[in-house]
Amino acid sequence: MQINPKFFNKVFKPLIFFLLALPFLLLLSGLYFNSLGANPIEYVLRSLGEWALIILLLALIISPLRHALQWIQVLQLRRMVGLFSFFYATLHLLCYLGFEQAFDIQSVINDIWERPFIAVGVAAFITLLPLAITSTRTKMRQLGTRWKLLHQLVYLAVILCVIHFWWLVKADISEPIIYAALTTVVLLERVWRWSKIKNKPRP
């Protein structure tokens, strides 16, 4: 599969950028028009976290999509998708720190200690942080083979994100189950592909 390079760069990539930014724009619109329900802050906080997880899963699906469709171009979207996931995760964290904790560090520390799902969420963000910092081509060249090793942390990050969401939801766990199932499929696909490469006979 191949899309015309000019169309891919001038139309397709900007369209994907817009679609990834759309949830954020809709949240801003909802806040402006006061249409996010009785507790808009909780709605925004939850939505930002969920979109961070959804987009992180999309970033992980890109590689299997490339193999399934023989579409090498799609790999050019991976960095943008991954950075959007980090963008939503950062906003999610800032909303938690600002609106729930008023940037009170001691209160945050106490919350991490008392509520395990908060600790897991912070761990997920910390895991994503070095991936975002080293996402540039310059860092890729500087780190060499260590770059790929470092970016394997994305699998730990997505697992932590799913656990964070699962522990947050106390009653209806249908959504966390869906995300956990998707994560399991993605991870099993990686294991299967790695095993194929490892067991491939050398010439």
What does this structure look like?
The chain is mainly α and 203 residues long. It contains nine helices and no strands. Helix 2 packs antiparallel against helix 3, helix 2 runs antiparallel to helix 8 and helix 3 packs across helix 5.
Described by the principal axes of the CA atoms, the overall outline is: globular
Note the total helix count: 9
What kind of sheet is the major sheet? none
Secondary-structure element string:
HHHHHHHHH
Q: Give Rg in angstroms.
A: 19 Å
- DSSP strand tally: 0
Q: What portion of residues belong to β-strands?
A: under 5%
Low-confidence stretches: none
Q: What distance separates the N and C termini?
A: 28 Å
What is the total number of structural domains?
1
Measured as a percent range, the helix fraction is over 70%
The residue-averaged pLDDT reads 91
**What structural category do the secondary elements indicate?**
mainly alpha
Main attributes?
globular; mainly alpha
